Amino acid sequence: MAKREKFRIPDLRNVTMPFICDELGDIRAQIKGLQKYEGILKERAKSLKEDDVEEYEGDVFEMVFNQVCQVRLDNDLIRMDMDEEWLTAHSKEVEYVMIKVNKL
User: Fold this and answer.
1) What residues pair up with 63 in beta bridges, in sequence order?
2) pLDDT for 70-80, tens place per residue?
């Protein structure tokens, strides 16, 4: 397999807002496509996995299968069981800047 080229961030000192808008939109589209491809590859890996093998190696990366169990809070049940006062007392407000990018 050919050597993978490392991503390099370009010099952004002289960029314009229209450039940033288009770059962010393009990056989001690439990420969406890559996430879909990643999901397809993971499903294929699961279907090819041998029962007694947990680790596989490529030329550059290794892949490890782990069985995971998590305990998660059920927010819908919490909202149903606790009153508004309890929810308010146990919640926190967080401010942040959200940047949405929409296709023209």
Assistant:
1) 56
2) 999 998 999 89
Using the structure block, give the residue that is written with the tokens 């680790």: 55
Tell me if the pTM is above 0.90. no
Residue 54, token pair as written in the block: 């947990």
From CA 38, how far away is CA 44, in angstroms rounded?
10
Tokens of 44: 């294929």
What is the rounded distance in angstroms from the CA atom of residue 37 to the CA atom of residue 31?
10
CA distances from 74 to 12, 77, 80, 81, 93 (A): 43, 5, 10, 11, 20
Amino acid identity of residue 51, one-letter, is D
- 3-class DSSP assignment, residue 23: helix
Domain assignments of the chain as residue spans, ordered by start:
17-89
